[in-house]
């Protein structure tokens, strides 16, 4: 669980004054904008907009770890229309959100995709433990370096949802909304069960270099052929497993409580065909947000239009927390529902 000392330190880092003429949540992320009439080409072959940012965070023994963070930033000079900051899962990268880019560019919204250390773009560090504290501090430092007065929307997919949730609280004065896609839940879900497998891997990994040399190809094959998630190397697969080992689901509760007493909008997207997370656990997670409104979106473009209209109605009625269930979708809702998710 993130310590109160760390929370205070991060809050001091973020404590800045910003102008009051921010765009509102309704102007930025809901139905005040007209829906585009046709899908945009999302082939993912546009300019990657990658750049580097020097980031420093503390290790567990209070040494400073330096990272040459690779981030995707579509508008480094900023955008008046707002900034979307995305946190990927494990495994994952900024590429998990590539289908968002054409729509956000069309709206003039800045997109910043964080690449966490050890997942293929940002290099790891020998003292990195792949835990919640490190991920949160790393992401918070990137937010600080953006130096933008625009309203923020944090987006998290899967393992990244925990980080996005906490970032929205640490920066709640600047945050319009947080969007959680196939989020981790408050209870142990099937992708983590049985827990002893992940615990055993982490224990073996910490035995040293010889054990790691043996484990890298093994965990790579497990992710590729059994888990069926793309981890490009054994190092990335190991980082993913270690990241899941340090996942503390219950640590989200205190942040949810703070969001429930804030004006930050919440949108949760979960699916019925997710092989890793049961929909009933996702609904249980969503119900922890006060006053949340449950909606559903079936497959098909026509149903997306209906869902968009439903969202507009509940937002216009004053609802700021929405959970949308996609019965036919899998663990990557953002791939096939990018148009809807970027227009809410």
From TrEMBL:
Pfam families: DUF1057. PANTHER family: AB HYDROLASE-1 DOMAIN-CONTAINING PROTEIN, PROTEIN CBG21859. The keyword Nucleotidyltransferase does not apply. Keywords: Membrane, Transmembrane, Transmembrane helix. Coiled coil: none annotated. The keyword Transmembrane helix applies. This is AB hydrolase-1 domain-containing protein. The chain crosses the membrane at residues 204-223. SUPFAM superfamilies: alpha/beta-Hydrolases (SSF53474). Gene3D superfamilies: alpha/beta hydrolase (3.40.50.1820). PROSITE patterns: PROKAR_LIPOPROTEIN (PS51257).
């Amino acid at each position: 669980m993130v310590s109160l000392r760390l929370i205070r330190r991060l809050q001091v880092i973020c404590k800045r004054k910003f102008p009051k003429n921010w765009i509102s949540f309704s102007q930025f992320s809901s139905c005040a904008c007209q829906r585009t009439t046709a899908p945009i080409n999302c082939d993912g072959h546009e300019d990657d907009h990658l750049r580097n940012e020097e980031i420093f965070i503390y290790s567990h023994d209070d040494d400073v770890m330096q990272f040459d963070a690779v981030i995707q930033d579509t508008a480094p000079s900023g955008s008046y229309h707002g900034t979307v900051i995305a946190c990927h899962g494990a495994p994952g990268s900024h590429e998990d959100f590539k289908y968002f880019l054409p729509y956000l560019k069309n709206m003039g919204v800045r997109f910043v995709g964080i690449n966490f250390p050890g997942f293929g773009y940002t290099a790891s560090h020998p003292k990195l433990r792949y835990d919640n504290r490190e991920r949160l501090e790393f992401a918070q430092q990137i937010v600080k370096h953006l130096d933008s007065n625009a309203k923020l929307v944090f987006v998290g997919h899967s393992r990244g949802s925990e980080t996005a949730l906490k970032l929205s609280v640490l920066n709640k004065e600047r945050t319009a909304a947080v969007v959680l896609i196939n989020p981790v839940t408050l209870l142990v879900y099937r992708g983590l069960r049985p827990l002893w497998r992940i615990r055993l891997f982490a224990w073996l990994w910490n035995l040293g270099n010889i054990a790691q040399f043996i484990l890298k190809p093994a965990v790579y094959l497990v992710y590729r052929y059994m888990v069926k998630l793309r981890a490009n190397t054994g190092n990335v697969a190991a980082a993913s497993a270690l990241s899941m080992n340090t996942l503390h689901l219950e640590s989200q509760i205190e942040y949810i409580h703070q969001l429930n007493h804030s004006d930050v909008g919440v949108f949760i997207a979960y699916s019925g065909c997710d092989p890793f997370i049961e929909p009933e656990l996702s609904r249980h997670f969503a119900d922890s947000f006060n006053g949340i409104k449950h909606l559903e979106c079936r497959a098909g473009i026509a149903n997306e239009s209906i869902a968009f209209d439903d969202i507009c109605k509940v937002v216009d009625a004053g609802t700021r927390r929405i959970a949308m269930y996609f019965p036919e979708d899998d663990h990557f809702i953002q791939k096939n529902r990018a148009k809807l998710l970027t227009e809410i």
